[in-house]
Design brief:
Blueprint lengths: L6 E10 L4 E7 L14 E6 L10 E4 L8 E7 L3 H9 L5 E8 L11 E7 L4 H12 L5 E8 L8 H8 L3 E8 L14 E5 L4 H8 L6 E6 L1 H13 L7 E5 L6
Parallel strand pairs: 7-8, 7-11, 8-9, 9-10, 11-12
Antiparallel strand pairs: 1-2, 1-6, 2-5, 3-4, 3-6
Amino acid sequence: MPKTKGSVTQVIRKVAENKDVVSLYFAKPKDSDLCDYRCGQFLTLSFRQKDGTWSRQHPFTLSSAPEDDFLRVTIKRAGSFTRTVQDSVEEGDEVLLAGSFGRFCQSADYHGRLALIAGGVGITPFLSVLRHLRATDAASEVVLFWANRTWQDVFARREFEELGRDLALRVVHVLSREKRVPHGADNPGEHVELGHIDANILRTHAGDFGEAGIFLCGPPAMQEAVLAEIEALGVSRERVDTESFVYSSS
């Protein structure tokens, strides 16, 4: 990762998405590379500590679109740094941002069909992609598979509903610990499957993939399992653009 001092900006909004996930919105720093990022990229975030120094930089994928007039990261509580960010960083606080980095989803604009496959908070780059597709009036057909343990882990349903008004978007929630389809899971374009993402679920909602661009983001074990299911459909894993989504608690 390139070393850089970054740009100081301000938290303009803090939203609790669920009990474990928080979105932070930042003012776009002027004269920064973050004014010209691409969907799927990430930044590094530092906050000011009690002694006035900046904390260690940690990476977070942008969940906003390049066309938005703000920057947004969506953070799951997964260690000491994320816990501190969620509990201590408030609206009006200064933060140090550096970026943008990464090449995930860089070909998303060039496919008429997209299959986006996320595990947990690995949804964040796809929120960026979907917002970008809407902002650019893209005609892409998109199916989004999102694996979570429970219905309570799901967030951004209203955002998906709003995106679906302008995009050909199907959202497939795959819940591994639910015994039945949750009540109220009936937004337009929304589907729920129980269990894990497998070849049957993929085939049901994405067909044979055809010439679709396939993008996968989640924990390594989840990615490997999904890639095996994709191969079971006769699709080479070499076609899949992957991004590991892991977090160090240090």
